[in-house]
Amino acid sequence: MSTLPSTRHIAFIGNYTPRRCGIATFTAGLCEAVAAAFPSASCIAGAMNDRSEGYDYPPEVRFEIAQDETESYSRAAAFLHINNVEVVSVQHEFGIFGGPAGSHLLGFLEQVKRPVVTTLHSVLRSPDPDQRRVMESLDAHSTRLVVMAERGRGMLVDVYGIDPSRIDVIPHGVIDMPFVDSNFYKDIFDAEGKTVMLTFGLLSPNKGIESAIRALPEILGRHPDVIYLVVGATHPHILARDGEAYREELTALAESLGVANRVVFHNRFVNEEELKEFIGGADIYLTPYRDEQQITSGTLAYAFGAGKAVVSTSYWHAAELLANGSGKLVGFADPQGIADAVDDLLSHPTRMTAMRKRAWRQGRSMTWKEVARRYMECFDRARSDFASPAGTSEPPQENRPRYPVPGPDLGHLERMSDHTGIFQHAIYSVPNYHEAYCTDDNARAFIFTIFHQLEHGGDARLDRLACSYLAFLWYAFDANTRRFRNFMNHERQWLESKGSEDSHARALWAAGTALGRSPNPGFRALCALLFQRGLGPVSHFSSPRAWAFTLVAIHEYLRSFEGDRDVARMQRLLSARLVDLYRANSSPDWQWFERIATYDNAKLSHALIVSGDKAAEQIGLTSLEWLIDQQTGEDGHFSPIGCHGFWPQGGEKARFDQQPIEAHAVVSACMAAFDLTGDRTWAAHARRCFEWFLGRNDLGLPLYDPSTGGCRDALLRDHINQNQGAESTLAYHLSRLEILRSTHSALAWRESSQPLRPASDRPPTHSASHS
């Protein structure tokens, strides 16, 4: 199992209480149990309606689906998407969805681009053509399937050819009840001093209650204190079609056999508290069902989990649950068998108590809390399965999809910016004022304006944006402390006296880039002040990434001021620190600077590649090559280390959430390596990392949104974080400019189309000491 956090947003689809049916009770029970066991999870429900007026649902039912309206299923799928649902839990029974064999559900599943876990409440051994077609489609559109008995798993494999590795067996949830003396509850329904037999659930002819009534005369002949309670309203569909005909038949049968005073009908739908009382007061639970092909019985599970002695016909669920002496099985329509089984239990109370204890102990693994835990494991597994690439090898070159570089679109950057600067975050594509501004993003944005103008020429819109971003950096710098502040609220109030070391170094990166590349004399003059005043404090910094950003800043600065001895001295100091860090932590199988690979990783390699020192350059190239190999998926695509757990040495590498800044860091470092070596393999690496933004990634989904010009914030296990913040959008646009920033780089982009090869398959061109 993955070590990632549990699934946070879950939708449960099925009938829901107060609708009166077993599926409704189960869906509500599961939704409530998961919500209780995992308080951080958001659990919502979608309820199937079989009548136009619907039902008076509880608050967790967030939307309703009209059973026979196909458009209603489409609207439900769209609702799940806008609410960022991560897993959809479908409760399947053929009769609760519209269309032949419930086929309307399939349209819903085709539109839900999320992992689906389908719980099958029926598994048919001999499906008709429509039912088989629906089952095959359920298999195709479900990430995982759940059944409540091992027999169900076997039938799915044998009858439908479903991969057993995709099937989980999770029992029906039960109320967690103590093992108590039934006499404690009997006074509630006037049964003091009596032996109580119980059947409960919605009444319908397939329940076989007439067999139990026919057994009563012989049972009473041996045990005259027995009373038989039949608890539950008539099934709504039966009531609508036949009225109370079945109940009246049972009443007439009891009268004809002379046992009417020993059969008590409670003709109502009981709530959970009442049900606990009825189950608690029962001595023997009867399920005399008539149909063998019943793979699930919620009423049987409830009684069994409460530690009741059970007598049941041998339908599939009962045969499996009551094996090994945990209950008594009888034939179908066999009143004599029922009478003998009841007599055996009541005549041997010690044996009956032992049976009850076995059932109760086994039932501890079936409580709703335990079932919720197992479903959450299933949901997490489904997300992991859904995120796994379908293939394991690179497709042939002629069949590989192409990812053309989109043209420039500054629309989202303009919407994210005002006269103060660029906003940090977005809600979808709308700026989020609550989290306002930061130096980190304004530094990136200012760098982008410089590169964009070099690639695409002057632009009055861009000049205005660049002025705002640089003005923010100037205001962020505190001349007294010689440090940059980072976070500012929407009222233009600083939220800290000084920012992080990383944000300080990114501001220097922006100033150095302007000094090295910008033709604007005003920008250069102001950035010279920032660079000169802000460089000194870096010598006291402890953050390796701050050292790295500063080294990149120095590299840019030295394009114009190569003879600056003080800056060159800082370059040597910081390079030596990174080299020492690498030598202290690296080994042949861990060619990295730290004992954990975290964020913006390639920037460490990039810094040494541009350090101007031959030994440091070799370490930069070697570590970058290793990092790329470790972040290459099985089919050759870029698969960066995720931010949920990162990658500790010797531990599990987090696969998600993948961040756009990781792709940009590698693109930028690879282009620096290409500039240094002229090796077009580095341009190929940059190309593939850039294609991560366009859909060549673990999910095959694009992060760049051509409709807005923005980039979505993260690649999650099974979907995209739809917010388009500044960091992500700038990571995309900076990456795009990096790979197109010169004629020879663009040529390398076009020509370097061979698949990625791991370092072990290439002759070594650079080496670095691990001592």
Automatic annotation (TrEMBL):
Occurrences of domain Glycosyltransferase subfamily 4-like N-terminal (ranges): 73-174
Domain Glycosyl transferase family stretches: 191-359
Stretch list, region Disordered: 386-407, 751-771
Gene: mshA_5
One matching Pfam family: Glycos_transf_1
InterPro entries noted in UniProt: 6-hairpin_glycosidase_sf (IPR008928), Glyco_trans_1 (IPR001296), Glyco_trans_4-like_N (IPR028098)
Name this protein carries in UniProt: D-inositol-3-phosphate glycosyltransferase
